[in-house]
Give the backbone structure.
Amino acid sequence: MKIRKGDMVVVTTGREKGKRGAVLRVYEAGKVLVEGVNRVKKHQRPNPMKQQQGGIIDKEMPLHISNVMLVNPATGKGDRVGFKFLEAQGANPARKVRFFKSNGEVVDV
């Protein structure tokens, strides 16, 4: 996956366009949950078994992964991400890493 939990992303489309946040969760269905983005009001029924109180709560809803871009710390903007292999060093085998397409900088070191 090009976007992982903990990454800083920026929303590229929709009513939340331009907002930034950290990825809280990545779903198998190609959706991501971003902190502080796509908040909705949910009417929740009380559940005494789970000690939940009823009422209207604010919560984040998932966005499609195509609507967010990874933030490049060098430029401060959203950037496309690719994969490449780093050559083997000593006893360590070759490693697959993510890199920014604009400047070739490796995302996870």
